[in-house]
Amino acid sequence: MTVCLIDTTVFCCIVPVPGRDQERPGVSEQMQSLIRDQVSLILPLAAIIETGNHIAQRGDGTVRRDAAARFVTIVADAIEGRTPFTPTPFFKPTEVGGWLSEFPERAMRGIGLADLSMIKEFHRQCALTPHRRVFIWSLDHHLSSYDQPAPEV
Question: Which of 28, 57, 144, 148 is placed for a possible disulfide with 134 were both Cys, Cβ 3.0 to 4.6 Å?
């Protein structure tokens, strides 16, 4: 089985978040394919938080409320196991503390703390499932390059 971590760019299309959902038709098609293939869909905490922030920054109040309501339903259903998504657990403070030493160098390469947490979750999932393909589904090139293929059998 394959493990897919959903990035903010993709989650914004799934919700959808107006102004951040231009790729929605392609994302919807790929989502159906992943579900059909029984891929484990992981929803990282960073994607949840960033998508919520993008919703809060929408200009029109009605559009913002509608997107927020869709977002809450999807995330609450994921928490309760009623969607194909599995949310990641909260990070331990010691984990985040460890990332801080890497952050200045990552920031110099344009990698924010949310993306760093996504990369760390990718490596965690690779360690948990070494015999499976693990990848980050992102519309951003720097995150979509994280793809651990399944070992040849």
Answer: 148
